[in-house]
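Batch manifest, entry 17 of 40.
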Amino acid sequence: MIDWQQVRGLRDEVGEDDFIEIVTLFVEEVEALIVRLRQAGCCQAVEQDLHSLKGSALNLGFSALSALCQRGEASAARGTCSAEMLEGILCCYHTSLQMFLERLAQAGYPTPVYRTPAAGSRQTYPAPLPEASAYP
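Output type: structure tokens
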């Protein structure tokens, strides 16, 4: 799910402090994007958001998420968006993020704190995963 070589390369390239900032920005951006995806009324909007998520995920080493986004983006470009596809992508994001942050914590990195788009409040990750029944 995670390309740890990409993660190490990014961390080495930008340094530890900037790396944590990148992780925090990634989580904030994806959380905002999730709100947009859930509210998207057309496949064109979904396609654009998945394209953005695909690149961000790949940059941070979330290879499985990036691959799902690529498939979803192609599907949306054909005009075939589905709630099941989006929920699968979101489930992969939450699972990947949990795994990623647990490994960062084991390595002694601080826990990222991010602002949620809906509530505007600050949240700490890792947060509990959504109920398994929330995903197909």
